[in-house]
Amino acid sequence: MSTETQKPENKQPQHEFSIQRIYTKDLSYEAPNTPDIFQIEWAPQVDLNLNTDAKKLADNVYEVVLQATVTVKLKDKIAFLVEVKQAGIFTLNGFTEEQTGPMLGSFCPNILFPYARELISETISRGNFPPLYLAPINFDAFYQEKLDQEKK
């Protein structure tokens, strides 16, 4: 019986992704028209604004911040405004520069969004407003739109 030693062919660099920490960086809540706003029929106009930012902390270590601002109006009055900056520290090893952009601009915000959504929902609930359920976001499309805007 003979044994053969197999040599790896075209060995690709290993991709390593890890979450070091997820945390709330900032939280702001305003309900400027309470208690009068509770007397108005609940037919809200919801405006959601999202933004992402990433910065390098060390070699292969990045902080990604997802900022979500929700403004809810009844007629022309603001019922409430919630702004959350949900952040995370991520390690990315073995990614090319072309791969790092989508990881920081799409993949990481996709991880952070459920935390931001939960914090927004909990904050609104503590303000005694009806629940607000934010739909999932397609961060791949969001990232591509951001790239397209930067090209203009």
Number of discrete domains: 1
Largest sheet report = 4 strands, antiparallel
Shape assignment: elongated
Classified in CATH, the superfamily is SecB-like
Mean pLDDT: 91
The CATH topology comes to Bacterial Protein-export protein SecB
For the record, what CATH class applies?
Alpha Beta
* Structural class by SSE content: alpha+beta
**Helix/strand order, N-terminal first:** EEEEHH
Report, as a whole number of angstroms, the end-to-end distance.
66 Å
Please state how the strands of the largest beta sheet are arranged side by side: 1-4-3-2
CATH architecture: Roll
Number of helices: 2
Low-confidence stretches: none
Strand content: 35-45%
Please tally the β strands and state the result: 4
What share of residues is helical?
25-40%
Rg from alpha-carbon coordinates: 21 Å
Give a brief outline of the structure.
It is built from two helices and four strands. The longest helix is centred in the C-terminal third of the chain and has 30 residues.
Q: Which secondary structure elements does this structure contain, and how are they paired or packed?
A:
Blueprint: E1 16-30, E2 45-58, E3 61-74, E4 77-93, H1 97-126, H2 139-151
Antiparallel strand pairs: 1-4, 2-3, 3-4
Would you give an account of this structure?
The structure is a single chain. This protein has one domain: SecB-like (Bacterial Protein-export protein SecB, Roll), CATH 3.10.420. It has two helices and four strands, in the order ββββαα. It has helices at residues 97-126, 139-151, and strands at 16-30, 45-58, 61-74, 77-93. Helix 1 (97-126) crosses helix 2. The protein starts with 15 loop residues before the first strand and ends with a helix. The mean pLDDT is 91.
